[in-house]
Structure formats: C-alpha cells, structure tokens
Amino acid sequence: MLSKIASLVNTGVIQFLNLVGLANRDYPLHDYHMFVDGEEPTHHIVGTGNMANAGDQKKLFTSKSTLLYATADCTIRLNNSNNVAIAILAGVWYEFYQNVHTLFVDVIGINGYLYAYFEGTKPEECRLGA
User: Fold this and answer.
1) Domain-by-domain residue ranges, the chain?
2) Is the model's pLDDT at 52 over the cut of 80?
3) For 10-43, what is each residue's pLDDT tens digit?
4) Degrees (nearest 5) of the Cα angle 82, 50, 66?
5) Contact call for residues 80 and 101 (beta carbons, < 8 A)
6) Does domain 26-123 have CATH number 1.10.510.10?
7) CA 109, CA 75: separation in Å to the nearest integer?
8) Mean pLDDT across the stretch 76-102?
9) Which of 35, 54, 74, 101 is the most exposed place for a label (fewest CB within 10 A)?
10) How far does Cα 16 stand from its chain's mean position?
11) Average pLDDT over the chain, rounded to whole?
C-alpha cells in the first residue's frame, strides 16, 4: 500500500512539473535574424527584426528561448560584448533558456550562416530578479 501511495505521489509531482513547464513556455513575442559570414563582428537587438520587416509586434523584448543553428562554426556572446565567448558548432542546434536582449556575433566560419530565432516576453514580464 505504501508503495502504491509513493507511486501516485511521484506521478502527481511529475505531472505538476510538466504542466508548470508548459505554462511557462507561453512566449507571445518572436523575432528572427540571419547572420552571414563577412558581416561580423555584429549584433542583433531582440525584436528589431520584427519591427524592421513590418511585423505586427513593433517592440523590443527579452528572449526567454533563443534557438541557434549555424552552417559553419561561430563564436557568439549574449547580452554584452564583454561576456564570455560561446562556441557554436556547425550543424548543431543550440537553445538558450535565459534572458537575452542582444546577440553579439564575433566570428562566423567561411561562407557560413548563423540563424537565430527568439521567443520571449516584454522586459517587465521576464522575471529578471527571479
């Protein structure tokens, strides 16, 4: 009987955590930018792609989920050009679950592309202090 109760509690906890995770993935704002070899060093402020392309959002935001894919090895930095350099390997998908407002691109490999997709919320909704 004790084993059955423990199993039910464990199942309930896992279901609760999954529901909380899904509830926190409701990111209404989105942006996309493609970086090309030869343009670096450069940067992209999250939200400007949607604004520049006559998107319906017309606002900067904080990305809570940043998805990156590169066709050649790249080096990036998040939020500040002085932050730690992050190596992005070609052909590997990367997703960063942290508050990102600016993506800095230091290097893109020869003839390479870096694709960046951002999903997030308005800065006042992103729980910076949490």
Assistant:
1) 26-123
2) no
3) 666 666 655 555 555 678 888 999 999 999 999 9
4) 45
5) no
6) no
7) 9
8) 96
9) 54
10) 24
11) 83
Sheet of strand 102-108, all strands in order from the earlier edge strand to the far edge: 42-45, 102-108, 74-78, 86-88
H helices of the chain, in order, are 2-23, 48-52
**Statement: residue 1 has pLDDT above 50:** yes
What is d(CA 127, CA 4) in angstroms, rounded to the nearest whole number?
A: 38
**Is the link from the previous residue into 123 a cis peptide, with omega within 30 of 0?**
no
Nearest CA-CA partner of 33 in 54, 15, 48: 48
Q: How many residues would you count in the chain?
A: 130
- What Å distances lie between residue 121 and 29, 48, 56, CA to CA? 6, 14, 15
How far is 22 from 30, CA to CA, in rounded Å?
Answer: 17
Residue range 100-128, pLDDT digits in tens: 999 999 999 999 999 999 999 887 766 65
Q: How far apart are CA 11 and CA 118, in angstroms?
A: 33
Please answer whether residues 76 and 103 qualify as being in contact, where contact means their C-beta atoms are separated by less than 8 angstroms: yes
| Residues 45, 62: Cα–Cα separation, whole Å | 9
